[in-house]
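Appendix B. Chain record.
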Amino acid sequence: MRILYIHQYFNTPQKSGGTRSYDLASQFVTNGHQVTLITATRQKFDLPNKKRWQIINIDGIEVHALRNDYSNKMSALRRIISFLEFTAFSSIHILKLKADVILATSTPLSVAIPALIKKWLHKTPFIFEVRDIWPEAPIALGIIKGKMAIKTSCWFEQYIYKNAAAIVALSTDMKTSIIKRCKQVPEITVIPNISEVNRFESARNSNSIKNLPSKKIVLYAGSVAMVNNIEYVVKLAEVLLPMDSSIVFHIYSTGKGNRFEAVKSMAIEKGLMGVNFFLKDAVSKNELTGIYRECSAGSSFVANIPALWANSANKFFDTLAAGKPIIINHEGWQAEEIRKHNIGFVLDSNEDNLERTAKDFADYLNNKALLILQGQNAYNLAKEKYSLTIAVANYEKIFKKIIKPGKENPVTGRIHTPAT
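Structure tokens predicted for this chain:
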């Protein structure tokens, strides 16, 4: 089968950031499929020349990379221009490529436009993968404002779902939100983010938890942007310092998000920087596995907005794969998983309760036996429920429903034969 994969922010394990698309695409190749991936460079690839489109092979994946800069530090207008550039050029480029099925993964929602054009002109069915609830989340954050902008965004979201052959949501809460807000949606399959246990093998069985009298490191590896609310971590660190100075937070900032400088200034002002709060540059996913060896727990944080609780953050699943307890500061499906499977600690997001929360958290991190148990539980859950093998198997089921080898595709009207 020829799979055309559209992901504007594609990463490899040699770079910082999530690697879901790389992990899925490389396994699709292993399974015998031909995978062509359309992405933007964002200065993340070593390219052979200065042409607009670069074609490189990454572990069997044919990657078509558009020269298109993007950063969370850009102004809102510059980011919109970046989205539009990628949409326009990829919509033209995609028509030159052959495919049996398209997999378009958000965000932004605009990645669906090339898929829609390919469907209109070449009758190629597409799967739309929902990584974040857009536009619900940016509306809740106040990024999308005005009745017309909100109405247009919601209409476009529903139009995408209506035209997709299938929808993949990264959490049960995302699926519930889509069904609640949208009409005429196709079948929705929940395929959460991936715990790549093989990649994090070196991080397990470390001595960091067993040596608890020394520093107890809480690791956060992700963006420092408005949605992540790392200011909450600074405030928690401030309250914790006189209680237990051995508890420290290591923040590895992916791409230096739009709140990086504000968080840095806040930590310096409170006298925490380099004491129990450390703000560091991003590292590659491969380097991150070694860093997990030294931590007592991993973490994931979001702003105290219910619309954000449906997230399926890489940080959550990387922590499970590393066999470490996971710390979050919100409710939702991840909080339910933590409590059900005893794999971590849910902080109270209400900052009015920070003193009590800090005390309970300090007691928790000093319970060595519990941390060891939760780490093992986390690893077991990663293998049994969130492994790459399971995610790929679920995608293969969707492919077979859309396109059956040797039979006429009801969407395209073409006879499909497996890729060779």
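Further analysis of this model is presented in Appendix C.
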